[in-house]
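WARN no homologs supplied; continuing
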Amino acid sequence: MPLCVKCNRETCNPCVRVPFGESQWRTIVVASDTELRRRSYFRRMAMATRALIEELELSRRTFPDWVADVIYPYEGPILHPGGEPFTVIDTSVDDAFADDGSFRWLSGFVAFAETAPRQAPQWRVLDRLRLIDLAFKIARPDTARHFGR
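OK structure emitted
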């Protein structure tokens, strides 16, 4: 089934069709604030992050490097859910994790793979979550597809 270039979901009738061969890059649609604040979305992302960290043997300090290594080289279109461009600058990852130099937040985040969160994620961590989500959508789209189930 084709992926919709507007909402990035599998569908029989995409919202917009891209002519074959027009672009080698997929259009990525970042998660909305509402999606990122859903506890089920948050927990599935935590599970995927934990599995990735174990698979690639990343530490909490090297995980943001993986996010940067995936996001920065991507040259395809990245959009907000409304269709406006999502801009990634060369300091996006550093800015999102700036107040947590030891990345202890990441340890707490992956702990939600085991225990369901009791409340929605705080607004101040949405930039981090959005970048993690974006990295999964670029590097592991099959995994990211399950976040919003």
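The chain has a mean pLDDT of 84.
OK
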